[in-house]
Amino acid sequence: MTHDQNPPTPTPDPEPKLATNFRYFSPWLLVLTLLWLVVYFLVFPDPIGLAASNWPLVFIGVAGAVIGNVTAIGGGIVFIPVLMFIYKVDPVSALKLAFVTQAVGMSSGATGWLRRGEVPLALLKWTVPTLIIGALISTFLIHPQPILVKSLFGPIAMIAGLLTLITLNRTGGLLDLPRQGRIPVMLMSMLGGLITGWVAIGEGEIIAAFCMLVYGLNPNRAIGLGVVLLAINSILLALIHSLHFGGVPWELAAFTILGVLWGGRLGPFLAQWISMHATKKVFAYIALLDGLIVTLQAVYVMFFK
Length: 305
Hints:
Blueprint: H1 27-43, H2 47-54, H3 56-71, H4 76-85, H5 91-115, H6 124-141, H7 146-166, H8 182-199, H9 203-215, H10 219-245, H11 250-263, H12 266-271, H13 277-304
């Protein structure tokens, strides 16, 4: 028996495949929809007439929820431009609608990412506290104003679109960040919370892109983390603006909320069956176009009106 042969080099475990048993439909979707119908008919004096005017917002809600939960950008990338340009809602009211709508849509999607096991839960204790600090600063110390919302939304939307394109082909295999990444990710989470308080988007995409580009975190886990953080951020901001500041256009938000309720789970559901490459590219171009339109409109108002 010879001992001069080297033992075989152990091969690293392959990257775990995504679960494909996540079902789209859940009984609680039906329960929440029935609850929505009850509240809708009790709260609004003319529910039929209101639905006749605003029913397209249900599909806007679905689109925003899918984009938000596939890329972690947030549904505000759709809601705010649509509300400002088509429904002629002022920027701050559109921002408030985005918060309450995202609170439902991103939470719906976050449950999907959590059930798929695609969220690095250990990072939440490092990112959530600083997220809250950033959100509170941008809400109470530097209040969102119409000119601030319009001036920042365009550039942030374009940055989010570019980050989506840059990370499109990332294939990092890390399932968690190294220890030295904790402080930087805390700071990035606070920055995201700060920006989200002004324009409803930013937290999810900033965190996801940072974790992928700097530390090579698995793309799905990075997006899952971004979706969960944006959901937490949106719930916090929705509660603040609903209960403290007021001014939420509920007659419009009712329809976007119904849309995101059903659209929020589509992101994680579709991600297990189809390639997200082309889908994310389309969504990135939408973000770039949205950002460009809002930026040009803001420049026109500032200098030529």
